[in-house]
Design goal:
Shape: globular
Largest sheet: 6 strands, mixed
Keywords: Amino-acid biosynthesis, Aromatic amino acid biosynthesis, Oxidoreductase
Radius of gyration: 19 Å
Order of helices and strands: EHEHEEHEEHEHEHEEEHEHHH
Protein name: Shikimate dehydrogenase
Organism: Variovorax rhizosphaerae
Oligomer: single chain
Pathway: Metabolic intermediate biosynthesis; chorismate biosynthesis; chorismate from D-erythrose 4-phosphate and phosphoenolpyruvate: step 4/7
Number of helices: 10
Length: about 280
């Protein structure tokens, strides 16, 4: 990769950033498709985020930001424009500076998740969904599934007050029943999603009791590492359909490229995501 004065610079902001996969994927795609651009990770503490983000977007050759934990929500207050899913979830994971200088944000976590469901042939419309965890990804998924016509969405989290507030907001934004539930009991749900970090460590308790799953339920664990996760292994042992979360990232790649004005590259990548999938799998 040759970086010069005309190179478009993008940053991925998080704290920490050692775990991020996006630079290896997007820099490969930039090189492969002859795009003069680079994506660089930057570790920014929450206390410094506001001033850093506002300042860095003033640089003429820094065209946009990727946002990861814990900055997806903090960015929203700085935006001049935001897409509907980002507004509903109060979080964004992509930000660009438009030609008029305005700052625009979008949220692709839920879109990537839903495209993964399409790939696996898992229906959404009318389904009874349980989402365990209401962090940025969990809320983004809930917003997208509500927009896609899920029949009912239950949110389970340790902070029941937060889950209740999110459910209230999503009910107002979408024609969907969204409720907070006190426990992550998966019985009776068609689609159960682990949107917590539980499973990253061997000592973690399970996000929910796999034995309580209906036999025809479908499970998605959005953890990106330790594949297959303990939850996926337990589901497979029971014969329950279960899928890994890294597909959510793979399916977002064309969305980012389109958002940042690289529509032709996005179309080529969307036509064949096998190369992107191989890049993610190579990082496991």
């Amino acid at each position: 990769m040759k970086i010069g004065g005309s190179t478009r610079v993008f940053l991925i902001l998080g704290d920490p950033v050692a775990q991020v996969r996006a630079p290896q994927v997007f820099n490969h795609l930039f090189k492969q498709h002859g795009v003069d651009a680079v994506l660089v990770p930057a570790r920014v503490a929450p206390a410094d985020f506001d001033s850093f983000a506002r300042s860095v977007l003033k640089a003429g050759n820094i065209d946009g930001l990727w946002l990861t934990i814990p900055h997806k929500t903090a960015m929203v207050q700085m935006l001049d424009h935001c897409d509907a899913l980002g507004r509903a979830a109060n979080a964004v994971n992509a930000v660009r500076r438009n030609a008029d200088g305005s700052i625009e944000g979008a949220l692709f976590d839920g879109i990537g998740f839903a495209k993964g469901l399409d790939l696996w042939g898992v229906p959404v419309a009318g389904r009874n969904v349980l989402i365990v965890g209401v962090g940025g990804a969990g809320v983004a998924i809930a917003a997208t599934l509500a927009a896609r016509g899920a029949g009912r969405i239950a949110l389970a989290a340790r902070d029941v007050k937060r889950a209740t507030g999110i459910a209230d907001g999503l009910r107002e934004a979408f024609d969907c029943e969204v409720v907070a539930v006190p426990t992550p009991d998966p019985a009776g749900y068609d689609l159960v999603i682990n949107a917590t970090p539980l499973g990253l460590n061997a000592s973690d308790p399970p996000a929910f009791d796999v034995a309580r799953l209906d036999s025809d339920a479908c499970v998605v664990d959005i953890l990106m590492k330790n594949q297959p996760t303990p939850l996926l292994r337990a589901c497979h042992a029971r014969g329950v359909a279960a899928y890994p979360g890294f597909e959510m990232l793979i399916q977002q790649v064309p969305e980012y490229l389109t958002f940042f004005g690289l529509g032709e590259v996005a179309a080529a990548v969307q036509d064949d995501l096998s190369g992107v999938r191989a890049l993610f799998e190579a990082g496991d």
